[in-house]
Design goal:
The chain is α+β, with helices and mostly antiparallel strands. The chain has a single domain, classed as Glutaredoxin. It has 5 helices and 6 strands. The strands form 2 sheets. The chain has a 4-stranded mixed sheet with strand order 4-3-5-6, with helices on one face. A hairpin with a 5-residue loop joins strand 1 and strand 2. The protein is globular. The termini are far apart. The N terminus is likely disordered.
Length: 167
């Protein structure tokens, strides 16, 4: 094993096992409660995850520069329109602290005509809380507020429908 590979491995282990100082160790896994958070949305409203208890939640983490996010956003929007009158909500948390600007997020949302809530994680606290290392990452949360599924990478329509049925 060469020195670069050893350094890379040690660095990844440290990255994966170390949380920022301001984040308490929360267990993010299937069957555990989804950590609650409150953020302001792109349109200035306050959004609190616990306000959606009683509904299934598709909680997506994304940024405007993320190529796979660009692929999945129209699919998520189409699904959101399809389930609008059902007991399911889409929440797409923008990693604003890692994105270009709020203006860029607004332009992106306008260009794609996204209509689901977009909370802005300006300080990275929610992405830290959910231990987001790769985007897009999506969590499927049941009506009781319990984490049921986690998907790293872009969603497609069939996968969304399958995971919602399992949630």
């Amino acid at each position: 094993m060469n020195v670069k590979r050893i350094c890379l491995t040690v660095g990844l282990l440290l990255l994966c096992t170390t949380l920022p100082n301001n984040v308490s160790a929360v267990e993010i896994k299937q069957g555990k409660p989804a950590p609650d958070f409150s953020l302001n949305t792109l349109d200035g409203k306050s959004l609190k995850l616990s306000d959606y208890k009683g509904k299934k939640v598709i909680l997506n983490f994304w940024a405007t520069w993320c190529a796979p996010c660009k692929t999945e956003m129209p699919i998520i929007e189409a699904y959101h329109k399809e389930i609008k009158d059902q007991n399911i909500v889409v929440i797409a948390v923008n990693l604003t602290n890692e994105d270009q600007s709020v203006k860029a997020v607004n332009q992106y949302v306008d260009k794609l005509n996204l209509t689901f809530p977009i909370p802005l994680d300006k300080k990275g606290e929610v992405s830290d809380l959910y231990q987001i290392l790769t985007i897009p990452t999506t969590f499927f949360i049941d009506e009781k507020g319990m984490l049921q599924q986690k998907v790293i990478g872009p969603l497609n329509e069939a996968l969304i429908q399958q995971l919602i049925k399992e949630t």
